[in-house]
Each structure stands twice: as C-alpha cells, then as structure tokens.
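Dear H.,

Thanks for agreeing to be a second pair of eyes. The structure we're designing against is below in token form, covering all 132 positions.
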C-alpha cells in the first residue's frame, strides 16, 4: 500500500463519523477599526448561518456555516477525497475542533447584538442605525 493510501486510511479512522470541518468555511477579514468596518460586520452578522470570530493570533474571520457540496452527508465522507483542494489536504486532525481541547476562537460573535456588546465593552462609541 502506498504511503498516501496509508495516510488516507489513518485520516479516515481519525475522522470516523465526523464531518464538522466540511460544514463551514472561514475567510480572513481585516480587524475592524472604523465605522464602515463595524457596519460591515453588523451586516454580516445579520445574515443567517454567518458568524465572525477572532482566533488566538488575533486574526479576524467571517465564518459561513454551509456544508461543502462534495460532502456525502449520509456517510460523512468526502466524495472527491483524492482530488480535494489543498486547504483540505493541509488541515490536520491534531488542530481540529474534535481533537483540540481548546476552542479555535478567542472571541465568537453569532449575532449583531454580540458584536454591539463587544463594542460597548471596549468603550467604542458607535451607534448602529438602520435608517441612515
Ligand atoms: S479533521 Fe477533525 S473536525 Fe474534520 S472531520 Fe476529521 S475529526 Fe472531524
Ligand atoms: S472537498 Fe472534501 S474534504 Fe474538502 S471540504 Fe469538501 S468534502 Fe470536505
């Protein structure tokens, strides 16, 4: 058996019955610093299944909770495993949410109100107004 096949089998066992990391994407965004940035984050958080988080390196991300179209949701397996994108290949179980005891996020915003509270706590004087 080739080394790649062995590695794939190992991954399959480690990921047994789990598909968490194929159910969302996270895209890096700039740290918000001004009213336009705050507005944009509020706008993102007003959408269903969209979250924003800050990781332990203080990098900011917008997260879309949406499954990959190549995930077989019954078997929880990738249907293009041998041809999966590099970002999927680079992802390690040792860093994943299932095997890592601490959460990947330092700060997690699920709603616009979560983010407004963060601004209040930081004493950032910002009034969100739907009627501009
Ligand atoms: S890498 Fe981790 S989160 Fe992703 S499927 Fe495997 S065990 Fe689940
Ligand atoms: S391509 Fe495969 S491994 Fe990558 S996110 Fe989609 S289902 Fe998961």
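And this is the sequence the design step returned. I haven't edited it by hand at all.
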């Amino acid at each position: 058996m080739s080394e790649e096949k062995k590695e794939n089998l190992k991954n399959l066992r480690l990921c047994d019955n789990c598909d968490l990391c194929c159910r969302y994407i996270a895209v890096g965004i700039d740290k918000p610093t001004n009213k336009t940035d705050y507005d944009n984050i509020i706008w993102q958080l007003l959408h269903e299944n969209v979250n924003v988080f800050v990781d332990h390196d203080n990098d900011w991300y917008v997260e879309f909770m949406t499954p990959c179209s190549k995930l077989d949701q019954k078997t929880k397996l990738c249907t293009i495993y041998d041809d999966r994108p590099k970002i999927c290949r680079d992802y390690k179980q040792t860093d994943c949410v299932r095997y890592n005891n601490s959460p990947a996020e330092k700060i997690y915003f699920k709603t616009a109100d979560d983010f407004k509270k963060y601004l209040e706590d930081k004493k950032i004087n910002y009034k969100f107004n739907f009627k501009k």
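Two observations from my side: The chain has a mean pLDDT of 91. The pocket of iron/sulfur cluster (ligand 2) is lined by residues 22, 68, 70-71, 78, 80, 84-85, 88 (CB under 6 Å).

Warmly,
E.
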